[in-house]
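re: that chain from earlier
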Amino acid sequence: MKIEEVKKSFAMPIHSPSFSKGPYQFRDREYLIINYETDLEALKRVVPEPLELDLTDGPIVKYEFINMPDSDGFGSYCESGQVIPVLFNKKKGSYVHLMFLDDIAPIVGGREIWGFPKKYAQPQFRVDKINKDCLIGILKYGELEVARATMGYKYEQLDTKPVQESLGQDNFLMKVIPDVDGSPIICQLVKYNLINTSVKEAWTGPVGLQLFSHALAPVADLPVKRIVSGLHFKSNLTISKGEVVFDYLK
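^ sequence. v structure.
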């Protein structure tokens, strides 16, 4: 294999990358998002400068379950994690704190391309099999349950326009990749956006959320003090290319 051929490689393994080149389009992507109030000091410990906390509505965390049944290059999978409202240069956005999912391709691709904080786990998001009037979100890390969410199924329909507008906000990630000696060779604050968005339907209703302590899936480090609201919606969208907005090593 010639040097020029090697330089055209996209990802590892170079002869059979773990994910495709994209674009990364998602169809029928289904969300359950629970907004809850947490401890302010705990938020300060996990959000990196130069991001600032957006405390317009208080110290809020968005706990998410997402079904992605039809995603180009990544397969069909489920995801769960925490997103934090932030400000960057006084503009509103979201910082992706933790993500857990059950599919290797988006774990590898998400980390290598953008810097998504993805770990392998066993999330579920579905309608209750017995009482079919309830949405259920469950996150297991190995044997143990670390998050449990419930929401009344399609209680109150919402206008889709505000939901679609919220999808247009900037999203931020910490991309950290070590060099061969273990020292960081990439340490960047990355911005990405969701584009080509269309929200098909949106709902709210009664919600519940419990988080359980786990050493390697520390979602409970941002404890639930008060549940604010719940949102259930379905959409189509594309993940844009990333942009480095702050380089910590320069």
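The chain is about 10% helix and 55% strand.
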